[in-house]
Amino acid sequence: MDYSLDLYTYRVSCTVNMEQNLKRIPPTPPPRRAESAAQTVPVQSHPSMGKGFYISKTLGVVGIVLGVGAVATIIALSVVYSQEKSKNNEVKPTEGTTVRPSGTTTAPTTAPSNEIWDRYRLPDTLLPESYNVVLWPRLKPDDRGIYIFTGNSTVTFRCEKETDLILIHSNKLNLTAAPTLTSLGSTSAPAIQSHWFQLTTQYLVIHLNVKLKVGESYQLFTDFVGELADDLSGFYRSVYKE
Known about the structure:
- The chain is an alpha+beta fold.
- 23% of the residues lie in helices and 26% in strands.
- The strands form two sheets. Strands 2, 3, 5, 6 and 9 form a five-stranded antiparallel β-sheet that branches.
- A hairpin with a 4-residue loop joins strand 7 and strand 8 (203-208).
């Protein structure tokens, strides 16, 4: 037997079988290109977009900080005002800061009576025409460590109804001289019989020896002194540092 022929025949047979098997395998499709990761996707904007008010984050933070600071400032000022107001309610009339002339007395603080000086509304017997007030504050304390102010007042008024009383508002003031009354008409002014402070209604009451005449004009002059306190009441002292 010729073994070389058989070997050749086997090789040819194997080759033919392999070619037939390769023809049966479907061809491998070519690799697809990778799609670009960054694809442009059309976006349709809503009709309402683009309208409205927009602020940056920094501006929003600044606005919040300013708002909180404003609220804190208002609260602090309210607390300070309440404290000063409570102090003002506890302030008593000035004691020992002025010289009282002879004849000046203070009426006792009793329950309001039917007297004209115990009424909070001024009577209609006198009609003020002008006020001339001079105030001189002392911005340095005196030897007793008290801040004071001095001043005077000239009130011009006309008599509407006969009366022997003159009422003028006064609070926490002390007279340094007796008040004087002069007439601006042809007749002389009545003499002042007595005067006192009515603390309940905060009046300086002047009692005359005779009644004023209707239609006549008069001038009342007073010289006074008071404490320049920091109680936010009347003519007061306020200090701040920068």
